[in-house]
Amino acid sequence: MGKMLAAVFHKGDKQGGDIKLEEVDIPQITKSDQVLVEIKACGMCGTDLKILEGGHPANDNTILGHEFAGIVRKVGESVQDLDIGDKVAADPNEKCGYCINCRRGLSSLCEYMASGTTFGIFQDGGFAKYCVLPRSALFKLPENIDLTAASLIEPLSCAVHCHNLADVKESDNVVIIGAGPMGLIIESVIRMHPIKRLICIEIDEWRGQKALELGADFLINPESQDVKSEIMRITNDAGVDVIIDAVGISQTFEMATKIWAAGARFICFGQDYRAEAKIKPNDIVRYQRKILGSYIGYAEDFLDAIELIANKKIDVDKLITKVIRLEDLLKTGFNLMKTRKCVKIITTP
Ligand SMILES: [Zn+2]
Ligand SMILES: [Zn+2]
Q: 287 C-alpha vs ligand 1 centroid, how far in Å?
């Protein structure tokens, strides 16, 4: 049994914990439906940072990294449709298939996901040279796809899902609140479609500039500008038709309810378990507004995300700030993430 380098999470005494680079055993296939994947690229995610800081649960002694793509190196005996050498991307959220939500066709809302099945959070993931996954967690990729770009498939699937829910039309004024990595990936998807104008609301200067670079028509900084009056000026008093809150705190929720037009769709995307917000139900009734939650990508969104990456419809180079070696995950990777001057950082073993 050979060894490999892996970034392993160790729970601390209180909340959060540490991530350490360690030599661990290369994982082996133990069930007939499993696949051994050689990982070629794994993206760093805000969730990884949250896990270390105690803002997101994770299992002790687990290899982190849940946004990854690689090459099939071995398959269990019941896996019939994957060959050695095939390129694959992981859907890290393992579904049970039998809970009430799975049976109702809402498998991405599987009741058991939250209790701990995600690869790279609760089971070993992609910050390593190899990972063993069930066939059902893998999407086969086109031969010509670039595997570094393919590590964006998972977050991109979430953005595609969000865009579909928002039902964006050509006549819409669209606002994205928060230009973190997810806000910017959602922006890239929205920008592929004709809309009236795209406005980004962001406090951080570097991220705001990035939003403009990716195609936002206007940038509002809520620390130095009055959001409502800026929105009304930009939209000629119409307000906005689609609002995507990629932050998810009380302030951003309430901000959205001050700028929404009649008939608006407000998509809650960013997650913060602590957030609470006030709302007047009549503001929804009287102007037929919709508030929708967008949670991760569905299987069909993965298929769309694969197409977008394979056909180079998304400008991946603008979204990947840096590609680093796994050895540099702690020094370079997490430190760069903490400065917030980055979109995606991708690790390669
Ligand atoms: Zn993620
Ligand atoms: Zn389920």
A: 35
Condensed to tens digits (0 to 9), the pLDDT of residues 160-175 reads 999 999 999 999 999 9
Please determine, for residue 15, whether its predicted confidence score (pLDDT) is greater than 90.
Answer: no
Protein residues with C-beta less than 5 angstroms from the ion ligand 1: 45, 47
Domain span at residue 30 reads: 3-152+314-348
CATH of the domain at 266: 3.40.50.720
Q: Rounded to the nearest whole angstrom, what is the distance from the C-alpha of residue 299 to the centroid of ligand 2?
A: 14
Tokens of 29: 């296939």
What is this structure's pTM? 0.96
Conformation bin of residue 90: beta by default, left when phi > 0, alpha when psi is -120 to 50: beta
Question: Distance from the CA of 156 to the center of ligand 1, in angstroms?
Answer: 10
pLDDT band at 112 (very low <50, low <70, confident <90, very high): confident
Q: How far is the CA of 46 from the centre of ligand 1 (A)?
A: 7
Mean pLDDT of 88-103: 94
Q: Which residues contact 287 (CB under 8 A, 6 or more apart)?
A: 260, 261, 262, 263, 264
